[in-house]
Structure formats: structure tokens, C-alpha cells
Amino acid sequence: MDKKLSHYIERIKDSFARNTDINKEFIFFLKEKLKIADLDILSKNFEISNYQIDLIHKFIDDKKKGIPIDYILESSFFNGRKFIVDNQVLIPRPETKLLVDYINNLYLKKNAKILDAGSGSGCIGISLALDNPKILVYANDISFQSCEISKANKIMHEVKNYYLINSNWLSCYQENIFDLIVKKNGLHDIKTIKDNNSNFRVTFGKK
């Protein structure tokens, strides 16, 4: 078994010759997942462990199946922060940052209550909670597995004003308790603002 990293870099180039993005993803994978330094990646003689070789083989198999790099790394960057993800939650989309920026610019009052409905990984709600430490962000998701991912992200970012519930949309809440509700796709409240190029909606609740 060839243990030189350069062998596997060349193998990736040959296996995915028509997709240079995968070559870039592989370099990122080496740095992020295998913790290999830039100088070692450039070296022709740097050797890797059997465990690292197994992970590289899995990377190749996963990319042949079309699995996104975020799921391979089990992490994704959103709004300048790293979030845990897996195939139970959606990968944060860059345009979703527009939603976070929009809400951050609302100058919400102290203790304003926001609901992130169908929170998934928690990237929206946690970002809002961290950017606005004086507001209260509630989040829910019907999927227990998604809530576990969101909980792990809450712990990782040490968020104090983010409250997570495993429930179906608004079924566990009293009416008119939120100042603002955020969720993906449809929403049916007083005033809805939708970005025509995205799939998020913001609804303002109680006056």
C-alpha cells in the first residue's frame, strides 16, 4: 500500500479529471478532516497513516455518490461560524445569511421573542442569538435527530439565549407570544416578507 500523500492527490486528479471542484474539496478535506498542514500537502514524500488512507478511500467513494463535502466533513460554515451538520439536516445556504442580516438590522427590543420554526441544524436561530444576546430565540423541529444536531451546535457555541423544543411547528406554543417567526417555505401570519430568490420567510407577530 502506497502511504505517500502525493499518490492520493494524483489519484483524485485522475478520478475526477472533469471536476476540478472536487480536487479543491479534497485539499480542504485534508486540512479540515485529516489536519494535514499545507507544507505536508505540497511534499512529495509525506506519508499518512492507515487510518487517514481509509478516510481518503471513503472520501473518494462518497464523492462518486455525489455526497456534498459538508456532509463528508460533518460540518459547514455559516455567517462566519462553524456548524455541525449531517444528512438529517439541510446544509446552510449562503443566501440564508440575507435573512440573518435582515433580522439583525431590525433593532429588536430587549427580551424580544423570536421563533425559528423547523430549525434544522440551528444555524439561523443560533446566529441570531449570538448576534443579539439581549433577545430570546426559540427553535423547534419535528425531527428528534435534527434537534440533536441543533443541541450540539448550541453547546459548541455556548449559546445562553437559545431554547430548543422537539415539536411540530407551532403546536406547542400559545398564540401571539412571538414578536417574529422565521421558517423555511410557507407562513400564514400578519405580515410576511419573502425574498424572491430564496425560500425563507419572516413573519411579524404581536404588535
Index terms:
single chain; Rossmann fold; alpha/beta; six-stranded mixed beta sheet; 207 residues; two-stranded antiparallel ribbon; 8 helices
Verbal overview:
The protein is α/β, with parallel strands linked by helices. It has helices at 5-15, 20-32, 38-42, 50-64, 69-73, 96-104, 123-131, 144-157, and strands at residues 75-78, 81-84, 113-117, 136-141, 162-166, 180-184, 191-194, 200-204. It folds into 2 domains: 5-73; 88-204, Rossmann fold, CATH 3.40.50.150. It contains 8 helices and 8 strands; from the N terminus they run αααααββαβαβαββββ. Strands 5-4-3-6-8-7 form a 6-stranded mixed β-sheet, with helices on one face. A two-stranded antiparallel sheet has the order 1-2. The longest helix is centred in the N-terminal third of the chain and has 15 residues, at 50-64. The radius of gyration is 21 Å and the shape is elongated. 29% of the residues are buried.
Brief characterization of the structure:
The protein is α/β, with parallel strands linked by helices.
Task: List segments where confidence is low: pLDDT < 50 over at least 5 consecutive residues.
Answer: 186-207
Domain unit count? 2
- Compute the separation of the termini in Å: 68 Å
Structural class: alpha/beta
Count of beta strands: 8
Backbone shape? elongated
User: Per DSSP, what share of the residues sits in E-state strands of 2 or more residues?
Assistant: 15-25%
What is the annotated CATH architecture of the largest domain?
3-Layer(aba) Sandwich
Q: What is the H-and-E element order?
A: HHHHHEEHEHEHEEEE
Gyration radius, rounded: 21 Å
Predict the CATH topology of the largest domain: Rossmann fold
- Average per-residue pLDDT, rounded, comes to 86
Biggest sheet details: 6 strands, mixed
Helix content: 25-40%
